[in-house]
Write a structure and sequence with these properties.
single chain, alpha+beta, Rieske Iron-sulfur Protein, Alpha-D-Glucose-1,6-Bisphosphate, Chain A, domain 4, 2 domains, 6-stranded antiparallel sheet, 2 helices, binds FE2/S2 (inorganic) cluster
Length: about 240
């Protein structure tokens, strides 16, 4: 559990938006306070268990939709119970929070509790990103498929770097415009999202062509990973 995973692009979580994400089966409410703090909370109100993603961000607090209890950014501490406005909520009334940081254009979450997890490995300078692809296969199948080759072009066909504290794989020649890092998000034990981070910039026309190539290649990786996962469970062809 003590690993960092990219769960979203930073642009997907603007201020006042509460996003719903899944990491290793854990439902998350991810939101950004007005001061810019990134929060990744268990998507469950400590009062009656309503999803916090149904609530609203109000500056430095998130307000639950059901009984309008308010919880502070970063700590998750309850700050107001409207039915008892004169009472200070007990310190034990708080949302379960997870470590979250934003860097390289992505929001990273670590589900470890009771310790201060070290920061995730930085991805090389990210200048663009592919669309994220959902794969109906476990992380190991996606990782193995990527390691066997990434079908963009011959210079980007081998994966060169494996990072231990975040699932990052790099493909391509550092001097080549196809350089990309894949950030793997295990949504559940059986499902994975691939985020692609590109490290070079090209002019707009070439950019669109490049994104199309990567999107097509990631689709091929998805199909192969799903085929392998199905074969491993006896549910698909093994050819
Ligand atoms: S369920 Fe959230 S305030 Fe009651």
């Amino acid at each position: 559990m003590n690993r960092w995973f990219a769960v979203a692009r930073g642009t997907e979580v603007p201020r006042r938006h509460v996003g719903h994400y899944l990491l290793l089966g854990q439902e998350l409410a991810v939101w950004r306070s007005d001061s810019g703090a990134i929060n990744a909370w268990e998507n469950r109100c400590p009062h009656r268990g309503v999803r916090l993603t149904l609530g609203s961000c109000e500056g430095e607090e998130l307000r639950c939709r059901y009984h309008a209890w308010r919880f502070a950014s970063v700590s998750g501490q309850c700050t107001l119970i409207p039915a008892h406005p004169g009472q200070k909520p007990a310190s034990t009334v708080r949302v379960r929070v997870f470590a979250a940081v934003e860097h390289d254009g992505f929001i990273w979450v670590n589900l470890a509790q009771g310790e201060s997890p070290t920061a995730p490995t930085r991805v090389a300078h990210v200048l663009d990103s592919t669309r994220s692809i959902f794969v109906d296969a476990p992380l190991y199948a996606v990782r193995e498929t990527l390691l066997d080759g990434y079908p963009v072009d011959s210079t980007a066909s081998r994966l060169a770097v494996w990072s231990k504290d975040a699932y990052c794989l790099s493909a391509g020649n550092p001097d080549h415009a196809a350089l990309v890092t894949f950030l793997l998000q295990p949504v559940t034990d059986f499902q994975t999202v691939i985020h692609g981070a590109l490290h070079t910039t090209v002019e707009e026309t070439a950019r669109l062509a490049r994104l199309r190539r990567h999107n097509a290649a990631m689709g091929t990786v998805r199909d192969e990973a799903e085929r392998r996962a199905a074969a491993a469970t006896g549910g698909g062809a093994t050819a």
